[in-house]
Structures are given as structure tokens and as C-alpha cells.
Design brief:
Helix content: over 70%
Structural class: mainly alpha
Shape: elongated
Largest sheet: none
Strand content: under 5%
Radius of gyration: 17 Å
Distance between the termini: 25 Å
Length: 82
């Protein structure tokens, strides 16, 4: 029941908040794709591929941070519209 309320409310977002959500999701997907490519190229783990592995981990952390900022930004935009 709570999930339905959340999804219904998300479907009625203003266009600016929806744009922020989509943009943050797109950037997170790009960063996760780059992290996956780096991880696949850095196998097997060795001292030579350590920097690529650390960069991939940083990209994964950054993707979650971008999603969080996107949600907060969309909420702020929504509240300003009301």
C-alpha cells in the first residue's frame, strides 16, 4: 500500500523535478557502465590494474551519491512548486 502511494506521487511530479530525476538516473547509469567496463578490463587483479580497480569502485560510489543528490534536488523543486 505504501509503495503504491509513493509510485502514484512520483507519477505526479512537476516537469522540472522529473527532469532532475531522469538526469540523475542517466548519469548514474553512465557511471555504472564505465565502472563495469573498468572492472572487466582490470581482471585479474594485479598491481598494474589496481588503479583501474580503485577508479571503478569510486565510480560506483559516485553513482549512488548522484542518485541521492537527484532525489534531494527533486524534492526541493517539488516543495518550491507547491
Amino acid at each position: 500500500m505504501l509503495i503504491r502511494k509513493i509510485l502514484r506521487r512520483a507519477g505526479r511530479m512537476c516537469p522540472a523535478a522529473l527532469w532532475v530525476q531522469r538526469l540523475s538516473l542517466a548519469w548514474a547509469c553512465v557511471l555504472l557502465g564505465a565502472a563495469l567496463a573498468l572492472l572487466l578490463n582490470s581482471l585479474p587483479l594485479s598491481p598494474d590494474t589496481y588503479t583501474a580497480n580503485r577508479l571503478a569502485q569510486a565510480l560506483m560510489e559516485t553513482a549512488s551519491a548522484i542518485l541521492l543528490v537527484g532525489v534531494i534536488g527533486a524534492v526541493i523543486i517539488e516543495e518550491r512548486q507547491l
